[in-house]
Amino acid sequence: MQSYPKLKDVKALDGYRLLLSFATGEKKVFDFASNLSHPYYQNLKNPMLFKNVKVNDGEVEWITGQDFCPHTLYDKSADYTEM
Cβ of 44: how many Cβ atoms within 10 Å? Predict the structure, then answer.
């Protein structure tokens, strides 16, 4: 079983992207837009709701109750390079 670094922080970016910070110091960006077509995430199309995201016990969670698998976030994210 693969071990994943712990998710420490999340910030919503424009374009329905998430900036993820891990305990290892890694930063990654996850494009969440394609997930918004799923009925479970429909209300997150509202940018104000999407931006109300936090880390709760190592998982991404929105104030509306939706969450997302941290392992998928890690595996499917692009490395983040600060400009």
Answer: 23
Over the chain (83 residues), what is each successive 10-residue block's mean pLDDT? 88 97 96 96 97 95 94 95 71
The pTM of this model reads: 0.92
Task: State the Cα–Cα distance between residues 4 and 10, nearest whole angstrom.
Answer: 16
Lateral strand order in the sheet of 7-13: 7-13, 17-22, 27-31, 78-79
Q: If one looks up domain 7-79 in CATH, what number appears?
A: 3.30.2020.10
Domain boundary assignment for the chain: 7-79
